[in-house]
Structure formats: structure tokens, C-alpha cells
Amino acid sequence: MSHSQVNLSRRRLFTRQKIMDTPSLPWVKEAQFTDLCTQCGECIKQCPARIIRPSDGGFPRVDFEVGECTFCYQCAEACPEPLFLPKTEPAWQAKAVIEDSCLAMKNVDCRSCGDSCEPFAITFKLAVGRVAQPQIDMNSCTGCGACVSVCPTSAITIKNTFQESANVTE
Question: Where does [4Fe-4S] cluster 3 bind (predicted)?
Fold first, then answer.
């Protein structure tokens, strides 16, 4: 079976759930991504932050372990396919999530995520008998990922906050 005969629309059935929970690229039409992306790599070449990397099957994906998304829209402008929404639309419905492995939750003072958060979405609430605990203002969080790479325990991830089937925006 040649590559042109392979139906990639059901490819996500076999991907790891962790990958499915994270955003692929800003402004991308997720429902059509695997059908229309030719894996040409233009978005990877044009990303000034160098955070777009080849992922499963060669499809591009933002890697927040490397850095943050600046929402420059250069990946969308470089793409020869109709994969992206207009820049006037929200980049994605993804937000930061702090897991239990966070040092502050283990009573170790660490504020690296809050220090790197430019929209100041991560604040620390004082707690009696404990170090200040991180809190995320979901209305302020842009999902840029600046907090991910600076976390010493990899306790922060950026996750989609919508059901993919509900986000079929053309």
C-alpha cells in the first residue's frame, strides 16, 4: 500500500494519550491536521524559538521542554497547506497544569514557574505550615509553555482544555 493510499484520519487512534492531550501547533485545525499536513518541515524551519520538532510519524509538534511559544504566527505563515486558523482566532485552548511532583507541593520552596510566567498566571498562595503553593489563573494562562522548561521536576505540562471532537473549527 503506497503512502498516497494510507488514510491518516484515524491515525490518532493509535497515538499515545499523553501526546493527544497536548497541543500540536498554535492556530492549527486539529481535526484536519493529520489529513492535510504534508510534513514538509516549513513550520519547523520558520519557528524563531526552535520549539517545533518532528513528532510521531514526522508530524510537527510544539516541544515545551525546549522553550516557550511566542505566538509569532510564523509557523502558520510558512505552511503551504490550509492547516491554520486566522491569527485573529485564539492560538489554542491549552493551559498549564501543575502535577503532584511539584516541589512546592512537597514543601520545598521553588518559584521558577511563577518567575518565568510573563502573563503572571502562576501565583503563589501562602499556606500555614507549608511553603507557598502555586496556583494558576486559567483566565490569564495563555498556554505559552514558559513554565514547562524551567520546572526542575517536570511537574508542569500544557494540556488541551477542550474535547477535540468539539473543536472542529474550519
Answer: 141, 144, 147, 151
Domain that holds residue 108: 94-159
Mark which of 91, 124, 150 sits at the end of a domain: 91
Number of domains forming the structure of the chain: 2
Residues annotated within a binding site for [4Fe-4S] cluster: 37, 40, 43, 47, 69, 72, 75, 79, 141, 144, 147, 151
| Domain closes at, from 91, 124, 145 | 91
* Single-letter residue type at 129: G
Task: Tell me the whole-structure pTM to 2 decimals.
Answer: 0.78
Q: Which residues are annotated as a binding site?
A: 37, 40, 43, 47, 69, 72, 75, 79, 141, 144, 147, 151
The answer to whether the CB of 153 falls within 8 A of the CB of 100 is: no
| Calculated CA dihedral for residues 139, 132, 145, 117, nearest 10 degrees | 70
Same domain, 44 and 60: yes
